[in-house]
Amino acid sequence: MFRAYRIDRNAVPAAGKPADRFVEMDESELDDGDVLIRVGYSSVNHRDARVASGVEAIRRYPCVAGSDLAGWVVSSAAPRFRPGMAVLATGYELGSRHHGGYADYALVPGGWVFPVPEGMGCRDAMAIGSAGLAAAMAITRMEENGLRPERGPVLVSGASGGVGSLAIDMLAGRGYEVVALTGKPGQAEYLGMLGAARVLLRSEIELSVTSGLDKGVWAGAVDVLGGDVLAWMLAGIKPGGVVASLGNCESSALQAGVLPFASRGICLIGVDTVYAGFKAREVAWGRLASDLKPRHLDHIAREIAFEALPGTFGDFMNACARGRTIVRIAGQGGVKEET
Which residues does the UniProt record annotate as the domain Enoyl reductase (ER) (predicted)? Predict the structure, then answer.
């Protein structure tokens, strides 16, 4: 028997919201998979909080929550993995259609599993997690489309969140002039420590929806908010600039005209970390262990015990969370680490 944090719509019928609770499970209750993993760490993403809070529905109930995990292989039918290997899995259907990372054990399809990069432990892998993967994939795609430090400043929205914090750290480490866009004046010192050259407050900009062009200021932008913020960004991108859209924390709607694209030739890139292909993930994790390795991970991430997990979701829903939250699930628990 092992612990799991499971979402069960039928546990509490009030208001039709899913219920979350710690339960005891055994291996027979795990989903189909090739790799049995002793989970050491997971993390909390905004989507995890939405699911646990009943704001976002998932595809099956009950389901062990948690869209990220890292730990050690117990057994594997996939020849790439051997007992004791440190591995990670993020996205795909974890925590929505397939039991996720908030459990002592996970049984996962081999195609979803990656070795933890050399020089990185399971804890660091989860400090990065889906948020860092998204930021790395965005920077990679933007650079493939011409973004360079000499072209000008790069704007990052949702700057104090997980994706924003890691994107600022990575971009600044690559030599970019990074401007952090935030609604939280109290986070200016933190954002400057990560490498932001300037902090722009939401209260300082006019977010009226525009279908035209503003002065071209930004060579690029990383956006997790969507809606009016993304429309405002597009209007202020320099000719040949590039914007990466990673989320819709504020709105999934976009009211923007074609002029930034037709008159300035800008590029809008969508970044997906749920069903992204193996090659894109491999490239991103390779960079996360090398030229995009976060320099301030200890300041960006905080660690909580598994038992403290339910108390964290409200911080995300109330926009009070900063950086990354790592969940310490368990130690190796008798798994012999590969040497």
Answer: 19-327
Query: What pLDDT, in 10s, does the model give residues 169-198?
Result: 999 999 999 999 999 999 999 999 999 999
**Residue 162 bridge partners (DSSP):** none
User: What is the spatial distance between Cα 325 and Cα 143, in angstroms, rounded to a whole number?
Assistant: 28
| First and final C-alpha spacing in the chain | 28
Tokens 């933890």 identify what position? 116
**CA atoms of 71 and 121, how far apart (whole Å):** 9
- Looking at CATH, the fold of the domain delimited by 2-127+296-328 is given as Quinone Oxidoreductase; Chain A, domain 1 (3.90.180)
Question: CATH assignment of 129-270?
Answer: 3.40.50.720
User: Which of 248 and 121 is assigned the larger pLDDT?
Assistant: 121
- Supply the mean pLDDT for the chain: 90
CA distance 5 to 7: 7
**Rounded CA separation 158/168 (Å):** 10
pLDDT at 14: 46
**Are the beta carbons of 70 and 40 closer than 8 angstroms?**
yes
Q: Where in the chain is the domain with CATH 3.90.180.10?
A: 2-127+296-328
Rounded to whole angstroms, the Cα distance separating 54 from 314 reads: 12
Question: What pTM, to 2 d.p., does this model score?
Answer: 0.91
Residue linked to tokens 């040949």: 240
